[in-house]
Amino acid sequence: LTPLLPHIDHRNRGMRTRLGCLSHKSDSYNDFTAILPDKPNRALKRLSTEEATRWADSFDVLLSHKYGLAAFRAFLKTEFSEENLEFWLACEDFKKTRSAAKLAAKAQRIFEEFIDVQAPREVNIDFQTRELTRRNVQEPSLSCFDQAQGKVHSLMEKDSYPRFLRSKIYTDLLSQTQRRLS
Q1: What CATH number does residue 135 fall under?
Q2: Which domain covers residue 79, as residue numbers?
Q3: Which of 76, 96, 152, 156 could bond to 82 as cystine, CB 3.0-4.6 Å?
Q4: pLDDT tens-digit readout, 14-35
Q5: Number of structural domains in the chain
Q6: Is residue 99 part of a domain?
């Protein structure tokens, strides 16, 4: 029994370290630059204040801009809710599927990853939507996730998006683009 104690203590220390990392919710411009699709400095040189300001016009404008999407993803990570955006993006990709053979496999993968109860990245949708989606996936079509995707889009738009616009990530980014002009 004694030889196990150092192993247990080591695991507990490792767990404390991992929990400590999880509890550290950073919300800054630097967190955003780490996940930019290009090299951060080059990306920020390409991003104008006007473009970044337009992200506040509508949620869909934000989602349609690759740097806006990256900034929003970084923000959602600080809130531990990036699964919502990942699900929405998976649905957008799913709708582009042209192969009937791939449709069923993709639908099943998305369902198991995001919709099913206890899914690894389960999104927050109501029981009726979950069950409708479960039935839809049995005979998948390009629209089988439409209701669930709509609910998640609405949740992000009404809940996360306003917080993003007030976040340090967004305000720091705007300041950075404006400083470049000075």
Answers
A1: 1.10.167.10
A2: 48-177
A3: 76
A4: 433 333 333 344 444 555 555 5
A5: 1
A6: yes
